[in-house]
Records
---
Amino acid sequence: MLDFVWNPNGYFFWLLMISLFCWILERFFPWRRQQKAFRKQIGQDFFWLIFNGHFAGVLLTYLSIWIISQINNILFSWSLPSPDYLNLFSNSPIWIQFITYFVLSDFIEWGVHNLLHRVAWMWEFHKLHHSILELDWIGNFRFHWMEIIIYKGVKYFPLVVLGVSNEIILSIAIVATLVGHLNHSNLKLDYGIFRFILNSPRFHVWHHDKILKGQHGQNFAIVFSLWDWIFKTAYYPDDKDQPDSLGFEQIEKFPQRLLKRFFYPITR
C-alpha cells in the first residue's frame, strides 16, 4: 500500500530524501538561529508537502489522461496529429533531452511564476505560498493545488511535442525539488559568482519580502536566476542579507485555517 514511499523509481521517495537532507542541513548550519525547527503552522506545511507532493499529482494525472484523450479525439476528427505524435527529441541523446527540457521547463515556470504575481485572479491562489512568515525547506511545498494545474497545463504541450522520456522528467523533477527546497531553506547560501545563474536562499528570500521592489515583485526564479537578471526583475542588495519581514500587504486578512486555505479563493 505504501510502496510509492520506498520506491526509488518514484518521485515521492526522492521528495522525502531531499526533505530529510535539507532539514539536517538547517539543523547544522542555520542562517536565522532564532528560528525554530517546528515553527508555527509547520503542521499545515506537512499537509501541503504530502498532498502536493503525491496526492494532487495522482489526481491530476487521472484528470489529465481523460482531458488529453478528449483533445486527441477532437484532433483525430479534424485529421490532425496529436501532440505526442511529433516526438521531436525522442531519438536524441539523453543529455540533450535533459538539458533542453530542463532549461525550457524552467523558463516556462519562470514565466508562469511572473504571471502569478501580475494577474489578479492568479495572485489570489499564489497568496498561500507567500503567507509563510518564516522561510524553511518545507515552505517550498506550501502552495495552492490550483498552481499545479496552471503549471502542468502550460508545460503540457512542449513536454509531449519534445517527446522527453519519463526518466528525464523524473530526473528534472528531483533536481528542481532539491533546488526549490534549498531556496526556501534557512541556509545562508548564494553560490558566489554562480548566483547570476542559479537561484539560492539569499536570492529567493527577497522574493518573499513584504515590501515589493518592483511593481509586481522581484526574483521570480525557480531554478535559474539567470532569467531575472536578463529580464531585469532581479533584486540582490549588497548591504543587507534578508528582508525585515515576509508576506504581503494585508496578510492579516488571509485565512489562517487549513480548510479555508485549501478552498481559498474559490469560496471567498
---
Amino acid sequence: MKTVAELTERFRNAGLRVTPQRQAVFGLLQGVESHPTVESLYYQVVAQMPTVSMRTVYQTVHDLADLGEVRLLDVGTGAVRVDPNVEQDHHHLVCSSCGGVRDLAVEFPGVALPRQYRAGFAVDAVEVVFRGTCGECQSAASS
C-alpha cells in the first residue's frame, strides 16, 4: 500500500478532495494485513476525529478502490472488507468463527472455466476463498 503522502498526491492528481479525514483512512490502511471492515475503519477514525461521518469513510474507500489502491471484498462475513494488498495476486482464508480474513499467496494453475461456459464469457479474475477456523478460534474452542 502506498504511503499517506503518495495517496494524497494520487487523490489530488485524480481531482479528488484531500481532507484530514481521508488522510486518516489512508494511514489506517498502511501495513494492514487484516482486511478491516469499512465500519471498523470508521470507528478508528471517529476515535481521532469525532465529527467524521460514515459516508466519508465509505466514499474514501470507494475512491481508493476506483483508483486501484485497494480491493473491496465480500467474502460472506456480512460486511465489506478492504484489502490493501493490490500488488500481489492472492486468494483468501476466512475464519467461519471470528470472520477474520487473511491473504493466501498461492497459485492454482489448474483452475479454469469449464469448456461449456467459455463461449460468451471472458474471465477477468479468479478468486478462491478457503473457509475454516483460524488458529486463535481453534485454541479458544479447545480451552
---
Amino acid sequence: MAIVIHPAKKLFGHVLFWICYYVYDGPIASSIEDEPSLQMQAAAISLPVKIIATYFTIYLVRQIYQDKIQRKFAIYLGLSMLLFGFLQRIVSYKIIYPAIYPQGLSHPLFYAPKIIMEIFGIYSVAAIASIIYFSRQWYINQREKQQLQNEKLQAELKYLKAQVHPHFLFNTLNNLYSLTITDPQKAPEVVYKLSQLMSYMLYDSNKPFVPLQMEIEYIENYITLEKIRYQDRLDISLNILDELQSIQIAPLLILPFVENSFKHGFINDNGKVWIHLDILKNDDKLIIKVENSKEKSDPVATNFVEGGIGLTNVRKRLDLIYKDAYELQLVNEETFLVILKINIKPNDNP
C-alpha cells in the first residue's frame, strides 16, 4: 500500500522551501550590499523563473525514472536550460536592471556570459531542490518497500499458521470419532479439551508472540487428549526444567514436533510408545527437546527429517519469525529426536 501524504502538508513543504531560499537569496545576501532593499527586490523579481525551472527539471528527472525519456533527457535538459536562462536574462534586462542596476544595460540582451550566469543562478537552486525532492522520494519508497515486506511476511505467517489449524483439527476429530466408538464415556472430556484448544488457536494464536507458559498449557491439553485415546500404551513426560514465565514465543511452534512424535510413535497399532518433551533455558537460549520411540522402518519420521510438509512448514515459520536466531536439529536414529534452540532474552519478544 502506497504511503499517502496529505496535499496540505505537501504544499506547506514546498512553500517553506521557497521561503527559506528567498530569505537566503534576499535578506541574507543583501546584508553585505550598500542598498539591501534593492537586492531583496531583485531576488523577489527573479524568483518566479527559478520556481518554474526547478519544477520543470524535477518533472524531467521523474520521466527518466519512469523510463519515458532516458535517451532524450540530455537534449530536453539542455534546451530547457537555454530557455530558462534566456527568460531570466530578459527579466533581468527589462525589469531588474532599469529599476535597480542600470549599469547592467551596458551589455546587449543577447550576451552569452550573462545568459550563462543566469543559467548557473537558476540551476544551483534547481539542483538543491531536486536533491531534496528525490531524497524524500527515495525515503518514501524505502518505507513502502518495508511496509510491503512486512505485509507479505504477515500474510505468509498467517498462511503457514492456517495450515496447522485444519491439520490439527482433522487429527483431533479423527481421534474423537475413534473414542466415541471404543470409550464413549470419555468423549465429553475430549470435547471440553478440544474446545480449550480451539479457543487458543482462534484467539491467542493470532498474536505475534504469546507467553511460553500459555503455549505449554496448550501442549498439555493436547497431550491430555492423546492420553485419553492411547491410555496405557502411552508413556509421556513433559519436563519444565527452568523458570520460563518471562519468555515469549511464537504461538503453535512446538505443536508440529509433538504431533509428529505421536504420528510415527504409533505408526503401528501394537506395543507401547514413550515420548519425552523437555523445555529449558540455557543462558539466552530457549531449548526444546522432543524425543520419542519409533519403529525401525518408519516412513513418517524419514519424511519429516527429509523435508515433508510438517518440517517445511516449521522451518518457514522459524525463518520468517526468528531468521538467524534459531537452530533446529533433527536426529533420526534409534529414536527420533528434535532439538530446537531459540535465542531469546527474558522479558523481551524474540
---
Amino acid sequence: MSQFSKIGWTDHTFNAHIGCQKVSPGCDHCYAEVERATMALGVIWGPGQPRHRTSTVNWRNPSKWHTAHEAFYAAHGRRQRVFCASLSDWADSEIPIEWTVDLLELVRTTTNLDWQMLTKRISNVVKRLAAAADWIREHATDTMSALLAWIEAWLAGDAPAHVWLGISVVNQEEADRDIPKLLATPAALRFVSMEPLLGPVVIAPYLPGWLWSQRQGGDHAPTIDWVIVGGESGPGARPMKEEWVVDIRDQCLAAQVPFFFKQWGGVQRRRAGRVLRGRTWDQVPLLAGSGAG
C-alpha cells in the first residue's frame, strides 16, 4: 500500500485509503479494483461503499522518507517523489473528511518530499480543501492552527511548493472538460496523466505558448507543466495507436514541456515495453531546489 514504486515517474506510492468508484471510461478496467490489497481486504468499489483506511504503520512511511531526504538527494541529486494514490482518489467526496485532514497534515509536514497528487475529480479539490478547513475550525484544537493556515493559504492562491497537482485524462472530451479546471486550481506544478490513452488528444492550447495565454489575457496564465502517457494493460486492454502518442509527444516538445512515456500496455505489458520511435522518454519537471529529474 506504500512502497518503493514500480511506477517509473515516481519513487514511492502512498495510499491513505483504498476504495473508489468508476467515474471515467478510463476506469472501465480499473487495476486497483482487483489489486491484491483490495481483494485481501474485501474492499468493494462503488458509490456508498465504505473506503478502507490503511494501517498506522503505512501512514508512518512518508515521514520516514522525509527523514531520509539527505541520503536520497546525495545518491540521486534530486528529491523523492510520492504518488498519492494508486488504489483510491484523494479527492473522492466519499472519503471521511477527517481522513483528508490527516492526509493534508501529513503532506504539510513532509516538505522534503514532492507529493504527486493525482485525481480524476479535479472539481472536488477546492471543495475538499474548504471542507477540511471547515472541519478543523469546528472540531480541532489550536494544535491544528498551522494546518488551517496552510490550507487557507492554498485556497487563496499560495499553493504549497512541494505539491504537484495532476489529473487523469483519457480522451479529448475529458481534456477539454478538466484541463481548464486544473489550470484554475492553485498549484505549484500541474500535470496530466493520459493513462490509459483511449484516443487522440490535442493539448497544445493548454501548454506554454500564445494560444492559452492569449485566451486568458496574459503571458503568465497557468499552463500544463508535465505530461505522462501510457497504454492500458491487462486482460481486455484497449489498444493505443502510435500516432496518438507521437502527436502528444510532439505537442510537448514544441512547447518544451517534459514528456514521460510510461508503457505501451496491452495484454502482455512486459513484452510491449515502453520504447517510442527508438528511445525512451523519461522527462520529469525540473523544479528549483529539486535537482535534475
